[in-house]
Amino acid sequence: MSRRAKVTLTVCVGVFMASLDLFIVNIAFPDIERSFHGSSLGGLSWILNAYAITFAALLVPAGRWADRAGRKHAFLLGLGIFSLASAACAAAPSVPALVAARVVQAAGAALLFPTSLGLLLPEWPVAKRAAAVGIWSAVGGIAAATGPPLGGILVQAGWRWVFIVNVPSVIGGLVLGY
What is the pLDDT of residues 62-115, one digit of tens each? Predict the structure, then answer.
């Protein structure tokens, strides 16, 4: 496999998983609510909101830090944090623990997301960079479209599977990235 193909595949795995988690958890929300009966709707809403708010708030500072520390390092660190936090989400014993794990998960996603494009573009010739951006964008769109149906399938086995699914995928991305 060429270096360009490896970088593109690795970046796409990270972008797909980070984007997927914006949408897949919505489908699992009713099952999560039943699992943590007695929790308020306001408390449960933080399972969704914590990820979106943290992700959005950290995108720019994470990108700036990655420019200083090195994009590859930041991307792989983000993948690792995202994977570990996904496992913590799956194992969460309470709503506050799940919300905390989602914050960490979003921090990992915020590290890998802006660096992904910074890693991808130099691998493509200038004349083909529009195609690279198209691939990168399409992966995010596919993740958005895949989230609800994949979440529906995984929830049949239990809501924790919407987080477990991230772990092997991201580990594969880490192996390929190193």
Answer: 999 999 999 999 999 999 999 999 999 999 999 999 999 999 999 999 999 889
**Which pTM does this prediction carry?**
0.90
How far CA 162 is from CA of 107, 125, 143, in Å, comes to 18, 37, 13
Q: How far apart are CA 16 and CA 20, in angstroms?
A: 6
Q: CA torsion, points 161, 166, 168, 169, in degrees to nearest 10?
A: 140
Write the CA distances from 145 to 20, 21, 129, 142, 177, integer angstroms.
9, 12, 24, 5, 25
Sign of CA dihedral 45, 46, 51, 57: positive
pLDDT tens per residue, range 52-67 = 999 999 999 999 999 9
Reported as half-sphere exposure (CB side, CA atoms, 13 A), residue 77 has a value of 15
Cβ–Cβ under 8 Å, residues 144 and 42: no
3-state helix, strand, coil in the chain (%, to 5): 90, 0, 10
